[in-house]
């Protein structure tokens, strides 16, 4: 087993990784920016090193600084969490070539899945369903118009190097496509350094369902149960639940088998997620992307399977042949508590003057009372996770947990969740990615 671990991240996920590492008697090294010096993850690690200013490019995305700390403090391994450098193939490759253990998939898998077009083509070749779309970047407006004519409007315009819900736009007709193509290309060039764009069929009513996979040290890929992630704002998730209320036994068998094929196609190791779009009208599902890292919403899978995914990541990275029981029970729901207003979802940082966590719920938080939420990073404050024997019980616990969570200082979206948990469409389980728009 790894004996020392550098956590190349911040906030709740750094704290989450440190918690499991400590339980396994692994020495932990945190790295932090000037802005995060007093956050809990810094205080809870065995060692902590300041690596630069608040700007992520000068701290959490500064690969050279992180590697220097790893060597200076004799870390055996690096866990990247999610975001920042977690899906940076060059960083993963450098970590391994430096003689350190990378707690994640190999650089080849990260590269293969990082480009949306390459990923689509690989998945199609492996027999994983993909939505109708372009097998290569659209060269210009004329090529995009011709492709859209063949695919059929509306179409989704997507940055090939994008992720996390960024770099996407819907075009309902030719005029919109001309406009959105230029916008997405410019955004992709600015954000990802790659202006390549693809087109896919856009489904006006669709659900977002994903499967947790594990690539084991012995080469096998296994799939755990699916997660429902359709409650979104600006293509970014707000609520996840497992299992999905839209997936029955027959569909579950098909979607899990497809996720295994996806992992096998790139010789996947460690934890990853295969994301799919599900057409509720037909029961068809299509590959969306593979996230080559731990997901924000991993706790709901942990609760229904009775496992610790971070522990499994560390054991797989250590070369252990782990045994994972794929059986599941109960229902889990996760709410992302963000420092943003509950109506327009605009960020609202500030000093936390009240922080009282609810009883009978799991809270994975990045902050405590007295901390300041800065504008430099993602607005996630905490993940509120509940577990019940079935969906009805989980919903009741979620309502109680939201009512029992007191936060003052920064803005927060607890009022949105209180509204959602009384919404008939959400309560029915028959909802889609448009639900938040219909509530506003």
What would a concise description of this structure say?
This protein is an alpha+beta fold and 440 residues long. The protein has 15 helices and 20 strands.
Please tell me how large the radius of gyration is. Answer: 21 Å
Number of beta-strand segments: 20
Largest sheet: 8 strands, antiparallel
- On the 0 to 100 scale, the average pLDDT is 96
H/I helix tally: 15
Low-pLDDT sequence parts: none
Content of β-strand: 25-35%
- Assembly type of the chains comes to single chain
Strand order of the largest sheet: 13-12-9-10-11-14-19-17
Shape: globular
Distance between the termini: 49 Å
Verbal overview:
- There is one protein chain.
- With 440 residues, the protein is α+β, with helices and mostly antiparallel strands.
- The protein contains 15 helices and 20 strands.
- The strands form five sheets. It has an eight-stranded antiparallel beta sheet with strand order 13-12-9-10-11-14-19-17, with helices on both faces. A five-stranded parallel beta sheet has the order 3-2-1-4-5.
- Helix 4 (89-97) packs antiparallel against helix 5 (107-114) and helix 7 (141-151) crosses helix 8 (174-192).
- The longest helix has 19 residues, at 174-192.
- The protein is globular.
- It starts with a strand and ends with a helix.
- The relative contact order is 0.12.
- The mean pLDDT is 96.
- Residues 1-440 form the Biotin carboxylation domain.
- InterPro entries: ATP-grasp, BC-like_N, Biotin_carboxylase_complex, Biotin_carboxylation_dom, Biotin_COase_C, CPAse_ATP-bd, PreATP-grasp_dom_sf, Rudment_hybrid_motif.
């Amino acid at each position: 087993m790894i004996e020392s671990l550098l956590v190349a991240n911040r906030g709740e996920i750094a704290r989450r990784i440190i918690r499991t590492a400590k339980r396994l008697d692994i020495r932990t090294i945190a790295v932090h920016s000037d802005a995060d010096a007093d956050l809990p993850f810094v205080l809870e690690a065995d060692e902590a090193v300041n690596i630069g200013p608040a700007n992520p490019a000068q701290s959490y995305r500064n690969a050279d600084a992180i590697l220097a700390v790893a060597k200076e403090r004799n870390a055996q391994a690096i866990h990247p969490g999610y975001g920042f450098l977690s899906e940076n193939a060059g960083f993963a490759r450098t970590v391994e070539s430096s003689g350190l253990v990378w707690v994640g998939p190999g650089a080849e898998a990260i590269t293969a899945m990082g480009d949306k077009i390459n990923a689509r083509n690989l998945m199609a070749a492996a027999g994983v369903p993909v939505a109708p779309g372009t097998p290569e970047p659209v060269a210009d407006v004329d090529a995009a118009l011709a492709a859209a004519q063949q695919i059929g409007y509306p179409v989704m315009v997507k940055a090939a190097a994008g992720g996390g819900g960024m770099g996407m736009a819907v075009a309902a007709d030719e005029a919109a496509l001309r406009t959105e193509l230029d916008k997405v290309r410019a955004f992709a060039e600015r954000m990802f350094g790659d202006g390549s764009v693809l087109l896919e069929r856009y489904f006006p009513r669709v659900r977002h369902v994903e499967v947790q996979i594990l690539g084991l040290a012995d080469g096998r890929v296994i799939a755990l149960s699916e997660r429902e992630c359709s409650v979104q704002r600006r293509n970014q998730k707000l609520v996840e639940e497992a299992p999905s209320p839209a997936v029955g036994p027959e569909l579950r068998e098909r979607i899990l088998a497809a996720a295994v094929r996806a992992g096998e196609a790139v010789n996947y190791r460690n934890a990853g997620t295969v994301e799919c779009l599900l057409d509720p009208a037909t029961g068809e599902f299509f590959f969306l992307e593979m996230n080559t890292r731990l997901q924000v919403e991993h706790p709901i899978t942990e609760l229904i399977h009775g496992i610790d995914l971070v522990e499994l990541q560390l054991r797989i990275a250590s070369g252990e042949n782990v045994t994972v029981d794929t059986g599941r029970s109960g229902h889990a729901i996760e709410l992302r508590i963000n420092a943003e207003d509950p109506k327009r979802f605009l960020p609202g940082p500030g000093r936390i003057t009240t922080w009282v966590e609810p009883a009978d719920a799991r809270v994975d938080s990045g902050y405590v009372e007295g901390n300041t939420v800065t504008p430099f990073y993602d607005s996630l404050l905490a993940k509120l996770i509940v577990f019940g024997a079935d969906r009805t019980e989980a919903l009741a616990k979620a309502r109680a947990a939201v009512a029992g969570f007191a936060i003052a200082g920064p803005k927060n979206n607890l009022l949105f969740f209180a509204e959602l948990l009384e919404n008939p469409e959400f309560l029915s389980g028959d909802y889609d990615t448009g639900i938040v728009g219909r509530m506003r």
